[in-house]
UniProtKB/TrEMBL annotation:
Helix-hairpin-helix DNA-binding motif class domain residues: 72-91, 107-126
Protein name (database record): Holliday junction branch migration complex subunit RuvA
Gene symbol of the encoding locus: ruvA
Region (Domain III): 149-199
Family of the protein in this entry: Belongs to the RuvA family.
Length: 199
């Protein structure tokens, strides 16, 4: 298995990045490749999950060991494949997801693409008490993180980001993180959004 790749980031697309390791370009699928945007042209260590099936071998890449570990845990949930696991990591932090599982917050879990109530329940059944991460009761609850759906300032900021040329896909990937700001002003969300999009 390939545990990590260390090389120069040459190219980034909406779903993948190319890492050059001694003249060999590895295509790595990431939850949000734009997190590595600032490292283009630089040497970077990327933690990888080597996914093998009959017709393909695919590398999934992550910024740290925690993201990689959570990805592998989510893959063990019945009905969740690599695309579903990537969608979780693209729109949520590891800690927020752990909080949602431990608090049995189905409302938060169903905000992920392709996750309905049945799948959310299955996630809780399969993962509660089994995730190897610190669970902090004082962490911002997942319901509060999801509360931005009806926040007018947040919606205004999202429209502003679109007008700046960012795609709906890019904005969707940071929406839950933006909601954590819980601000009354669009400017705060815009500044936070730009910071996240340029990571």
């Amino acid at each position: 298995m390939i545990a990590y790749i260390e090389g120069e980031i040459r190219e980034i697309t909406a779903q993948t990045m190319i890492i050059d390791v001694h003249g060999i370009g590895y295509e790595v699928i990431c939850p949000n490749p734009y997190r590595f945007q600032a490292q283009i042209g630089q040497k970077q260590k990327v933690f990888t999950y080597h996914y093998v099936r009959e017709d393909a071998q695919i590398l999934y890449g992550f910024q740290d060991q925690e993201e990689k570990s959570l990805f592998s845990k989510i893959l063990n949930v019945s009905g969740i494949g690599p695309k579903g696991a990537l969608a979780v990591l693209a729109t949520s932090s590891v800690q927020d997801f752990v909080v949602a599982i431990e608090q049995e917050d189905e409302e938060f879990l169903t905000t992920f693409p392709g996750v309905g109530k049945k799948t959310a329940r299955q996630m809780i059944l399969d993962l509660k008490g089994k995730l190897p991460f610190e669970y902090r009761e004082d962490h911002l609850t997942s319901k509060n993180n999801a509360a931005g759906k009806d926040n007018h300032a947040l919606l205004e900021a999202i429209e502003a980001l679109k007008s700046l040329g960012y795609s709906e896909r890019e904005i969707y990937q940071i929406k839950l993180q933006l909601a954590q700001e819980q601000s009354d002003t669009a400017d705060t969300y815009i500044r936070k959004g730009l910071a996240l999009l340029m990571k």
